[in-house]
């Protein structure tokens, strides 16, 4: 049963590398992706992913991630839950997400938490 509030997501075959890379290039979106990756596949509400931006800007960042195919968003009651589309991304671009996350971790260690 759907809530009537379905969000559009690209089918796996529609996901394009340029759009994924664009989505991952933004520091706030990368922060959200790192938090989702750390959750180990669990769905997290937007409020569980703290971004130091306004709510409208946060909404924009999550929309870019969803429309590029990086995350899947679903409504559960009034909460919008987010999960990485890791399997889809791995099938389309083997090793990309793992490499980007490892590079982000290395950068964070090199520059300190202020760059997170």
Provide a descriptive summary of the structure in words.
Pfam families: HTH_20. Keywords: DNA-binding, Transcription, Transcription regulation. InterPro entries: HTH_ArsR_DNA-bd_dom, HTH_MetalResp_TranReg, WH-like_DNA-bd_sf, WH_DNA-bd_sf. This is Transcriptional regulator. GO terms for molecular function: DNA binding; DNA-binding transcription factor activity. With 116 residues, the chain is an alpha+beta fold. The chain has one domain (14-105): Winged helix-like DNA-binding domain superfamily/Winged helix DNA-binding domain (Arc Repressor Mutant, subunit A, Orthogonal Bundle). The protein has five helices and three strands; from the N terminus they run ααβαββαα. It has a three-stranded antiparallel β-sheet with strand order 1-3-2. β2 (71-76) and β3 (79-84) form a beta hairpin. α1 packs antiparallel against α3. The protein is globular and about 40 Å long. The N and C termini lie far apart (38 Å). The model has no long low-confidence stretch (mean pLDDT 92).
Structure, briefly:
Keywords: DNA-binding, Transcription, Transcription regulation. This protein has 116 residues and is an alpha+beta fold. Helices cover 50% and strands 12% of the residues.
Give keywords.
3-stranded antiparallel sheet, alpha+beta, 5 helices, globular, Arc Repressor Mutant, subunit A, 12% strand, 50% helix
């Amino acid at each position: 049963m759907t809530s009537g509030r379905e969000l559009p997501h690209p089918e796996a075959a529609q996901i394009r590398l340029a759009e994924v890379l664009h989505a991952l290039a933004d520091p706030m979106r990368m922060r959200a992706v790192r938090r989702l990756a750390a959750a180990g596949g669990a769905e997290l509400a937007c409020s569980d992913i703290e971004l130091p931006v306004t709510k409208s800007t946060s909404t924009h960042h999550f929309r870019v991630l969803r429309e590029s195919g990086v995350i899947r968003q679903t409504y559960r009651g009034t909460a919008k839950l987010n999960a990485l589309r890791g399997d889809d991304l791995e099938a389309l671009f083997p090793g990309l997400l793992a490499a980007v996350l490892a590079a982000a971790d290395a950068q964070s260690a090199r520059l300190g938490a202020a760059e997170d």
